[in-house]
Amino acid sequence: MKTEKRRQNLSKHKVQVRLVARIALHWLIFFATSIAVLYVWQLLLSGDPFNFFSIEVGEVLERSAPVFVVLVVLIPLFVWDTVKLSNRIVCPVNRLESAIARAADGEVIEPMACRITDPWHPLFSEFNRLLERVDGVGRTGHPDDRTSADTTTPETTTPETTPAEIAV
């Protein structure tokens, strides 16, 4: 069992693109809300809070330009971090999905490893335990297919066994 460094940015394209789109949507909502809050704040500070047109939106944007620049610079970092985090979730699931498919096709699957810090570590441990159980029973699912050395038939338990004793 070995762990390897993840090399792909998008390992499950459909899931991760939806996640990035959701983060971008949240960022846009945050950005629009920030503009609205700053507008209301400037309106309250203007001394005439009930005259909604006393301050132009352009003035608010001009006064708050550094904040908006920071927000625009942060969005790529948010997206990159989200993709990186989603890989910690998606990549192990992809590997497990592939192993299950190969096992269903009859291949012998080696135990799988993942990082202890991965959220899927307990799932991989249980999958490996299942592999041990399947290997102990045999790939066909019949207990008679066990390959361990201690498997014996009733006919070979004692040399004095008679056919009448076996029938009972």
In angstroms, what is the radius of gyration?
31 Å
| Class by alpha and beta content | mainly alpha
Question: Helical amount among residues, as a percent range?
Answer: 55-70%
Poorly predicted spans: 145-168
Helical stretch tally:
5
**Gap from first CA to last CA:** 47 Å
Shape: rod-shaped
Indicate the topology.
Layout: H1 13-45, H2 57-63, H3 65-104, H4 121-137, H5 163-167
Helix pairs in contact: 1-3
Protein model, in words:
- This protein has about 170 residues and is mainly α.
- The chain has a domain at about 15-105.
- About 60% of the residues lie in helices and about 0% in strands.
- It contains 5 helices and no strands.
- The protein has helices spanning about 15-45, 55-65, 65-105, 120-135, 165.
- Helix 1 (about 15-45) packs antiparallel against helix 3.
- The model is unreliable at about 145-168 (pLDDT under 50).
